[in-house]
Amino acid sequence: MRADLPRFGRFQAWREAARQLASNRVAAGDVTWADEDTPAELFGAHPMPPAGPHPVTATKDFLSLAQTVASHSDPERWALLYAALMRLQEDRGFVANPADPLTDRLSRMAKSVRRDIHKMHAFVRFHELPGSGPRRSFGAWFEPEHPILEAATPFFARRFADMDWLIATPEGIARFDGAISYAPPAPRPDFPADASHTLWHIYFANIFNPARIKTDAMRSEMPRKYWKNLPETALIPEMLADAPRRVQAMREAGATDAPAFAARVTARIRQIPDDRPPETLEAARDQAMRCTRCDLCHAATQTVWGEGDAAAPLMIVGEAPGDHEDLQGRPFVGPAGQLLRQTMAAAGLDPAQAWMTNAVKHFKFTPRGKRRIHQNPAAGEIRHCKWWLDLERQMIAPRLTVALGATAAFALTGNRLPLTPRRGGVETTLDGGPVLITWHPSLILRLDPGPAAMAREQFAADLSQAARLAAEAA
Ligand code: URA
């Protein structure tokens, strides 16, 4: 049986054909998935059967995986996806099992597609095109590894909504003039060189630090196969060759002295922290409210200090306040905090009878439009803020601590090893107490439904274990 897939809108067409074939339980080996390159006469063209009697269902996770895999260049992808759909009718869980060979193959394909899309978003270089309309026009040529044109271009429509553009690839052309349309491929257009390319050169030459060359990291970030269409890469060989001379010149020139007023300005900006340890928890809180130990204090609204029962045997340590916590000045009041509080309640732990705090006490974010996007604190920020965490721990002296996520685990144990094998275990804090390691609730909120359900169960089990251990220790 032959199912024809159009050049564009292929995933939707595959989805409809696959549903129809599966409703007749047509075996995967009996279907040829054909595109415009498949010669029509090669296969007997059995017409598609009408919808059959068998119900066909697919999970959201599977459909999202299938949509990504559909942009892979492997000609086998449609057959693999159909085989997976047929299998899903008997075995709902196999897509969530990373050890399954088919799941593994599809996941690796999806990963390669996601990486290619990411690279396309980063490496498309537009040339301004002469035009007479009210909007500026741009064109770009890009050679992705996979047929990702349809999957990758909506990003450019959001980013460059106020200009007309086209992106030509060997697989086809995407054109935007308020809406995207797709057309078959044409020979590579000859775009005029323009001022934006000089800007790329200047930018690249300026961010290039000859003393910090890591060619492997550079090649992994900017793989060679994309170089030929990046204007700035013309500079790379010369800059690499010239780097030793520039480093030598930098060495010989030595460090420049800071101007005389720099120390005064630095002292004023940083308001050199008061290192005298406060004597009470209240005094510690008051001092922390004025903390300028690291730069996070400048953008955050306020310090978010711990709260709860200072005499509690249990301390819960998160990563850092999020957007809601920053605005309200209280820990764990946003979505991740709600999940934590509900799971604690289900485990018999009353948040008011524990001390709830964070490894870092200021919100770290990057602004994106009107939104503030959470960022993980850096190791240096965690170390600076440990001054407060240590104080809190001395004053509260918990008998058991629960570390939520990798940042808290690092701050408490000094160990940066991955969390997965450590989760559910009890380790020893740098100050010598027991600490139970578990997931951060915001991780659970970010996972796909399948893995999230499993992580939730583990989180609930860990908090129940914490309730038992805290009760024993009390
Ligand atoms: N995440 C944290 O780690 N802490 C909070 O207070 C809120 C979210």
Automatic annotation (TrEMBL):
Alphabetically sorted, this entry's keywords are: 4Fe-4S, DNA damage, DNA repair, Hydrolase, Iron, Iron-sulfur, Metal-binding
SUPFAM superfamilies assigned: Uracil-DNA glycosylase-like
The record's annotation in InterPro entries points to: DNA_repair_put, DUF4130, UDG_Type-4/5, Ura-DNA_glyco_family4, Uracil-DNA_glycosylase-like, Uracil-DNA_glycosylase-like_sf
**In what residue span(s) does the Uracil-DNA glycosylase-like domain sit?**
305-459
SMART domains in UniProt: UDG, UreE_C
User: Which family is this sequence assigned to?
Assistant: Belongs to the uracil-DNA glycosylase (UDG) superfamily. Type 4 (UDGa) family.
Designated name of the protein: Type-4 uracil-DNA glycosylase
This chain's source organism reads Paracoccus benzoatiresistens
